[in-house]
Write a structure and sequence with these properties.
- The protein is of the alpha+beta class and about 150 residues long.
- It has one domain: Aminopeptidase (3-Layer(aba) Sandwich).
- The chain contains five helices and seven strands, in the order βααβββαβαββα.
- A seven-stranded mixed sheet has the order 1-2-3-4-5-7-6, with helices on both faces.
- About 35% of the residues are buried.
């Protein structure tokens, strides 16, 4: 199975909303949030410009995506906002590769300390397997996410 990765574009927003809605509500809910996030009109708490999203593609289908931005939240430099992979493509290394791509972007922007809200226990275990530590009872973080980008 060949997977290609690239930066997300505005043409991808509907597919990202559908993918996000697999586990988190309705696509109609996500359309304006993803659009606003990418165009900079929706601001997560303490978010800074710039922000980015990457997609994982199999053939012409988006099967995963990740989004992140610079931040001052929790004394961090960056925040992983969203990551999703279609259920049938999980546990194949796609999410790990998406995290590595985002880590490389953070490194290029000078962001080392990166936080993430895991949202559930499966995500918490995944981030821990990628080297994230508990920041508090709710949040996790990488002290220096740049080490992940070197495995690309």
């Amino acid at each position: 199975m060949e997977i290609n990765y690239r930066a997300a574009t505005n043409a991808d927003i509907a597919a990202l909303a559908r993918l996000r809605s697999e586990g988190w509500g309705e696509a109609q809910y996500w359309m304006p949030r993803i659009t606003g996030y990418l165009d900079g009109t929706r601001h997560p708490q303490k978010a800074l410009a710039p922000r980015v999203a990457f997609v994982a593609m199999k053939d012409d289908e988006i099967i995963g995506f990740i989004a992140g931005h610079l931040t001052t939240r929790l004394d961090c430099d960056g925040e992983l906002e969203w990551i999703d992979v279609t259920s049938k493509h999980r546990r194949k290394g796609i999410a790990s590769e998406l995290v590595r791509l985002l880590a490389k972007w953070f490194e290029e922007k000078g962001a080392r300390k990166v936080c993430v809200d895991p949202g559930n226990e499966a995500a918490r275990k995944f981030y821990a397997s990628m080297g994230a530590e508990n920041l508090d009872q709710h949040w996790m973080y990488w002290r220096d996410i740049s080490h992940l980008s070197h495995s690309l």
